[in-house]
Queue: 3 jobs
Job 1
Amino acid sequence: MLRTVLPNGLTVIIKRDASAALASVQVWVKTGSIHEGDQLGAGLSHYLEHMLFKGTERRAGREISATVQAHGGYINAYTTFDRTVYYIDLPSEHTAMAVDLLADAVLSSTLPEGEVAKEKEVIMREIAMTRDDPDDRLWQAMFATAFREHPYRFPVIGHRELFAGNERGELEGYYRSRYVPNNLVVVIVGGIDPDETLKVVEEKFGGRSRGRLRPVLVTEEPLQLGPRELHVTEDVEIVRAAIAWQVPGLTHADAPVLDLLAMVLGHGDSSILWQELREKAKVVHTIDASCWNPGTSGLFCVSFTSESGNREKAEAVLDKVLKRCAVKGFKAQDIKQAVRQLIANEVASRQTMSGQASRLGAAEVVAGDLHFSQQYFERLERVTAAQLKQALKKYLVRQTRTAVSSNPMEAKAAIATAPKATGKASRKKAESVGEFELVTLKNGARLLLQQEKRLPQVHLRMVWQGGPGFEDPAKRGTSGLVSTLLSKDTKRRSAAEVARYIESVGGSFYPFSGNNSLGLAVEVLPPDWLRAVSVLSDAALAPAFRADTFAVEKEAQLAGLRQDLDDVVTEGRKLLRRKFFGDHPMGIDANGTVEGVEKLAAGDIAAQYGRLNFGSNVVIAVAGDFEPKAVKPKLTALLEKVTVGAVAGGGDPGKSAIKRGKARGDHALHLRRLGQPGDFVEIRDKEQAVVLRGYPGPALHTPDYYVSEVADELFSGMASQLFERVREEKSLAYFVRSSRVTSLDTAMFSFLAGTKPGREDEVLAEIDIEIERVQTGKVEEAELRRCQARLKAGRRQSLQTNAARALHASLNALQGLPIDDWKNYDARIEAVTIADLAAFAMKYLVRAQATQLVVRPKPA
């Protein structure tokens, strides 16, 4: 790794990682919302982040995003309290382009007058989105209540009234004073030549002179002298609550102790708070603990969701548990487990080039020491049980406690909580398939293994084909509960014991479910692979499906479904999906509906798993740092115990679904009969409006699928014509993009935008204009090439982690595709032509067969 400071004060950090031909180029500006001086609360840092891609002395705004897309890159930025970061992730052969472009944007933006005004309207939409989101409102309330003097009390995005008063002169003054070389850190990680890369950085950044950097006074938060509370009642479905205590900052000697305390108390299903409040007392749906301390002060937080009648009960149980821990302390194994979890999290964060660059940037900018991580973990390993107990008694005290909550209105809460009516086979010879070794057993089960020793981590994933299409239509949501309960009790261990067994070594064990599959994933450090196999084997072969655990998880899933109703965008997407697909299984996602989940009994879960768990419907994939000779026999023995069988109706579900998809040429007409073409309006008590429109689309394994991939990028990228017109030119929406819901035999291609109430028709008209442009073949060749480059690079980036590779491989095997089918991706994307896009838009994006939904606020 190379670290140097250029003569103009710019800090450069470069690290070579040749494991993939990818790179992440990041520019960290040491300025955030706490540095805005007499403009505190106006959101200048975030405003400036939006403006830096609007044009420079050398490039027009649209040229920036188009250039990145053309080189297969992804460009974005974010703003926090103490920093603003701009980054491009892309193929490493184009690193010099990324350095040049970011240097131009960060140091030479022109802040065009017209763009300043238009972007203000866009950010006003973003502020409205934040005010519509109950989770954002909760945490803004927490920071405003917990901090009285420190700038943390102001939202990073700014208060709406203060933000609205920003003028270009103020924005430019802030830019000129803070965006100087001696306040920047450039971090580059990837398959690069460090010396050549440094020369590029020196050339692009080194010519700008050091700037005068006026110090900014950041007021320290005085010691809190008494507890604070803020409890609001609003139009929400469930309780969201947060309790926090003042704690010192990242470099304080107690920081590692507090991080460990948060892990022990509230990280994972085996944690103390999860077990005591969720599993035993049953007063919360979710609960966790965290320590947020990036500066000189911070907050130790416990947050939870619950039913409205349980918030005070949950707080009482929490207080009781904390008092008990303050007296009895913590077990050595709890500390060992927490340290292991933190190490595993650190390893996971470094799997991608972007993750590595982010860790280096944070070490330099936030901690001020590139070796902070190493020293931090050395300090962690020295933490004792006595120190943990002392930290709890010192910091988690009534004097510095702040509690905030968002609570349902009584009438709504009453409605929400009202009760409702209610064969072993020997294996075949192994063969090599691409990067994975494939073992196919006589019962049809498959094992995939890919050894990759770059990082000390191994990922195991067991997948079954399933999802909404395999459920009883009257009991939608079975898939979500099946996967969740598979990760809980087994005949050998209780759910708590399962969690403790895997989390005690820093591992993670979690379920997943989607449109076409469900399964389990285990991730551990290499020495613990046997423990991972044991957990997976017990879950797959000896699940207990206990009635008491089922009842808890059923209520949690119901709470999650109601929680979705609090977010207007999430609810809008679900409503569109249901109207579009009608009675087709894809009308409901794997978590189901309130009505469907309420009808489920524990026996339904066991029966559904029994229908899915047969040889040809099961795949296990392993990727990472492991020894195949040791792992293969264990997992083969596991899979040999899965019975031979077939889903109801017989046959292989993956191959038959693919066959159906390829044979059906009338997707558009087929889908039109399923749902409700037409225009619909829903009224919600929100500040923003959301417009959605769904069209028929190609299923996963149909010839048009790859054309839809390109079309999605064409409509959704930052360089898209639709984004440029709707957001950049006309400031009609904060976000506008396309999206897809796909399964093995059907699909929806949709558009989504968040806009200002009263401007919904204008946004929809722009979507029509863009569709017509594609239908008439007016897509430019350069535009198509940019989309193709971005998609190909995106696929390369998506396969950096062990988890992603295992998931891709297992789904390919399950669905009857070559294990390494991703190797064909580039060629299929490159084969798409402008004529293909026009034919796709003419065939699928037909207004008469669309389902349109507008969700808007009540008229004033």
Job 2
Amino acid sequence: MNHLHFQTEKTRASQRGSALLAVVPAIVLVMALLMAFVGSVTSASQSAEQEQTNLAAESAARAVISLAVEGVWSDFAAVQNVDTAQPWDFQQFLEQLGFPDQSEVDAPQGVDIAQRLTLPVDDRGRATFGGAIIESIEAYRIDNWDSTALVVEVTVAQVRGMEDSSRTMRHAVREIFTIAPPAWDGLDYALLATNINCILCHTNIDSAQRFYNTDPELYGTFDQVKLGTIDSLHFRSDPSSSIAGSLYVGGDAMEGDGESISNWSKFNLKSVEVDADGKIVQDDWGGTRTTNMARPDASDPDKAANLYLGADNEHSDGFLPSSFPSPFPDNGGVDEATGEVLAAQAGNRIVDDEEFMTTVARSKGTVSGGRISIVEPGSSIDKSSELSALRNGAGDLIDGLVNGNVYLHGEKNDPLRLDGDIAIDGDVIISGYVLGDGAIRARGNVYIPADLIYADGSKGGDRTYGKAADGSPNNLAIAAGGNIVVGDFYRPAWGKGSPATGGKDGSFNFVMDEVAIFNRMEWIKTQPTLPGAAVKVQVGTKTVIKDEYKTETYVQVVAVYKNQKTGNKIQQPVYKNVTTTTGKPPYQTTTTTKVLTGYKTVDEYKKVQVGTKSVTKTRSVKTGNKITEIQPVYEWQTPQHPNPYYAGADHIARYYTFDEGQPAPIFNKQGYFDPNTGHWMSEERAEDWDDSKLSYADPSKANDPFLYAPDGSPIAVLSTLTPTGGWVAPDEMQKLIDLNLAQRGPKKTPFEINATLYSANAIMGVVGNLGSDHTDGRLHVNGGLVASDIGVLAAEGTQINYDGRGSESLSITSDRGLTIRRSATLPLPRS
């Protein structure tokens, strides 16, 4: 047994010896894999630990940067109101701190700002934060014309093992902070103005996307729209309007004469119902439901609200701006030769050369197709032949930036083709069909004499709003450094009388009425005090010597008469009062006339004396004596009240005038300021060249008190509605408007504008309702109307469909205040 076993073991040993030669490599491989796995686990653990350490170091660096920047910003806010500061204020502040502008330096050099921070120190006196050693904190600035970049770099060290060993790890983090004016959110509104007058008489405001939607699956998915006015809202007594959303009024709502609105139920002003998510409610057929306007209820915060007045806006979901910034920021611009900011030109309410060029220098868009004409500076259109050449087009492309005045008109089969943003150093006249996506910024005025419509496609017979036939977007935004003028602004009221000229030789039409009202609002800002209602005040006494009288009675016999029939018959006329209304608001007049409707037969009567009677009467007679009386003396006085709207002595007023050289009418007479309501009380409109109602800012007078200070320095600017510099003569401009309107044909359709329109000045115009105007008195806007002052008359009503794409095309920044934001974090290579 043992022998056998011995033999067996011996045999196995021999066999195992040869087998091991094959198994050893596998064991080595397994062991190698096992060691690799253990090593990888160890390495991963170490890597994770290292990564955590790196993240901690970078977090410490970013925290230190935040502390440093917060300190700089707080110091700036201590010496400058950040709500009114301009970019150059911050740049000058940094200059004083020892941070020079390094925008032109290839390798900017940082300034050590470690001493500005108080950080913990270790036992070797080194600054620390979050367990890391702060080795350096440096910053430098890079100026742009409209912003400043503050770049801060921090280097931190982490010691692993012995101090100063090769295992000391360093991390550098660079963060960039942008200091710039905040974005302006006014383009989020379908209609926004400082003061809204007249246009809300007969207006419906909706969403363009909802208005043109035909897909039932999208019912109820469209956002509500917003309507806003920064200062005040004026209503006529009979408005009939609806808003598919909410109305925001920064100041107060009042009737045309200045009386506050206390009873909103008397107005036919409705809001389209929206749900809790702010979506327009629609039924199964796509229709909407209207609801009454309702203010928020502090005692019931969940109650649905759609009307926000004054302080209500603090609790609303709508940001209401406080001013209208210029599309070419009024900050002076940059001198192209030196790169210096021209702060001396800032705030003058004029689009200066440098401000225009600095804003539009990067305009790279194009406009092609249609009819394009460029009128060079100094040239004018004052002949019919020149007008014909202008309308026929003398060019085929606008590329980026144009120096001159521009005429653009798109035909249905040859529309204007937009591609990106263009800038015009002059006025723009634009109408017709438009294809493509882009924005037009005009330094001067923009005129829309007739329809401006997207060349949209169709699907199933329905318009695919905002989309061309190939599905590409149609989207136009227009910003004017001057004013935007719609339709026939020369047109006399209801087509009667002579055209408006801006002087007393022409009609005082609707546009002139709006000019006078808006000028009064601007005049109010220039007055430290305002006149109140005239009051009768006793100013003294006087001594009067007069005859003394006494009263005595006496009896008088008088005849008594009675009407008696004569026996004859006579024909007596029968009249009826007939009331007629002519015109449309705001020029509507109502008259009552007695009209003869026939005759009737009646008895003839004659007055006959039938007797007498005695009557006791009284009379005053002199006594022969004299008496002395002390009587009060009165006079009418106009009290002056502190003006809550006074903009300060440095405010530069902006008055509208119809034509260059013409006076600017100001509707500030026969009215007064009511300190109890804070309203100006007066008739709704001046209605005529009435010197008892109007004051005039006259540029022909070197000492005009509205325009010049006593030392002769200017205190106001004039904004003209007619073509700048008269580059189109008034007669030719009137012809151009008439010809473009006539191109519409005799069809009774609304005057349609497809664009978002923006001006820091005014949007004004008239859409006539006579057959000769080729319109039916209705205005239809797909886009938005946003301007400091809006005075547009469409006698038969206005439809505004908000298209939010316009806010994406126009980048408008606030004209006051600065914000700071972290714009980039860049970890630098580790050492």
Job 3
Amino acid sequence: KYILNQFGLTGGGPIIKNKLFIFGDWERTERRQALSNFFTVPNDALKQGNFAGTGTTIYDPSTGNADGTGRTPFANNAIPTARIASASAKMAALLPAPNQPNYPNQDLFAAGSYSFARDNVDIKVNYNPNEKTSVFGRYSISKTLIVDPQALGQAGGPAIDGGQPGNAPSTIQSAAVGGTYSVTPNLLFDGNFGYLRQYLGAQNVDINKNYGSDVLGIPGTNGPDVLQGGYPNFTLNGGFTHLGNQNPSNPFLFRDNVYTTSGNGNWQKGSHAIRFGAEIDHFGINHFQPQASYGPRGGFTFTGGLTALAGGSAPNLYNAWADFMLGLPQTMGKDYEYINPATVRENSFAIYIRDQWQVNRKLTVNYGLRWEYYPYGHRDHFGGDTYDPANNNVYLGGLNGVPYDTGVNTGWGDLAPRLGIAYRLNDKTVVRVGYGISVDPNNFRSLRDAYPAIISQQFSGANSYTAGGSLATGLPPLVGPDISRGILPLPANIGTTTYPKNFNRGYIESYNLTVQRDIGAGFNLQAGYVGTRAIRQSAVVNLNAAPPATGKAGQPLYILYGNSSGINSIEPFNTSSYNSLQTQLTRRFRNGLQMGVVYTYSRALDYADNNDSGLTFAWAGAWARDKALAGFDRTHNFQTYMTYEFPFGHGKAWMTNGIAAAVAGGWTFNTAISRTSGTPFSVSSSGASLNSPGNSQTADQVLNDVQILGGHGPNSPYFNPYAFAAVTAPRFGTSGRDILRGPGTFNMDASMFRDFRITERFQLQFRAEAFGLTNTANFGGPGATVSSATYVGGAITNYNGYTIISSAGGERQVRFALKLTF
């Protein structure tokens, strides 16, 4: 089911003739959608702790040595009832039973109803007091409510579509005033002031009860604030769907304000068109969203290492479930909103000048220079704050003698030059070349998550085979700091976010060379090289990542201060690049037909896909391995479009009169076709043997020819599953980041439009639109965790999601519309 209704109206006109005008609109959008997806849940035997027939040996963590060696299996491969954690048994009882035959690979089909409702209202007034002056004012408001169901019923789990579970209301308001003033025919000034207010939130349906502490009996979860209510997060590595509220960013409540001011001038001097101006922006965020690690209800991660044997098979989904049944998480924690709301205030400043010089009728040169300045962010009740790993102190700006910017040096701004040249070789050929620098606009919003505004308690075992705590004992209580001291030692088991003392902001170089040619017969061809290079692209760098095989003892800040938590520094890091051949061929026919073909061949490389991405290989000694294809890279991107006005009806070639003209005339057909390459992905493995906190693990590649088989379905691998092997030694896997590419996509959209003139003043437009007209399945990426599979005698007996594609989109959606104008 997919039902979309969208309706509204617009109106405008003069209040005072030639002086004062008003315009307004209202639009309502409603969507009701049946969501469905496949998930993986344990059967009744596993819920009782019985692992017989799984092909995985479950070891007793109370036996053997602390490093995971020397352990003995549970008798009959079953956990004794007395050893099963009470909280785990209660959560397991809430789980729905598998309803698909391909156990345990996507064995649960879950469905639910999603709803979306939004109202948009805009109003704008224009006033022209005289021939030289014009001013305007506008106001817009958008109210939205989204309802998103969870996948596992009473046991929670992810939202079926991967979004925020529960209810998400929002109200967005914006207002602006501006105007222009013409000093002389050659000199004009314009200015604008804008304001944006963003109120966003999401709360799960279980928020009104402390299920973690009061129902499951796990100490330290939930809290006195209603926004700490609901189920904790139980993360199960290897394949089983996570339980509880697995979204640490839920619930959240944002109340943000943005102010923008700009003033510009335009001066026409002979063959020069000069534009100059300045801009000042201010934004302030006010958030409740403690999501540094586990969220406000607390969370527990079960990696499988507690019931695995060091040196034996890599832990898989059954080991992770066994860890959960024993109530022994390898890591656990909770995030506290110690300062509520967490705030960030930031300003940015810019000035620029640009000249467009028409050198002659063949040559146009556009050149300019922009200066941008981004001072360090601060809070509304004190300055910025930073963590110094050299002494383990957190500094709060403006308190007890600490400098307001805590000594963070952001420089005196950055210069960004631009140059563009267009040269007309002849009447049919134009060559364009351009180069420009843009300052990396990444802001200091991550101050929101820094200690002590967010206090992130994190506990982990000494190694991958040791528990960080238990569900029985829960999470230790928090003892908060005295903020007025200004300088706070960072406690052990507390993570934070920070920025480096010297924040040397990066920049992006953009360059292109294109040739456009009229090749005759109505065809226009354009081809060009387009590239970008980001210098010092920001990334999240974990300052506390350990080398392989060292566990907690190898973490730098644990060695110095006994802290094994994640310490994330948002800093200018390394270089990314994008290079492409971009082509376009268009033709306009005489009979109302237009066609175009666009093709791009490109390659994107980076170390992290965006400014909020952590590094796959976070240990400094492995940073070189992070350089790889970007996760959004698409080698081939082919697009084609067509618009055709049918040659029927009045003023056309055929059927110009009578009933035939009335029925067949006035129709326009549009279509767009898209075909793209898939995006890259990595093949991962359990990180138990790696024993390197802060890092991800990739699989060993054991065959040179991976063989993309292209399968999709429960037992049809997308790539050769035997091309990779789980890593069981204390080292990184031999495969790299983003070495395989997922399925490509195909889509065709089409529409039919027609205008009906009812009277001289009234006209009705009919529109029929189809998205995904061919109903072609666009498959999602495959499961790529090699240690999820079950092996017997070297052969895979159950894929458990490994190499299996279990999601698809691209279904056809059809809608009809009527638009009345008068």
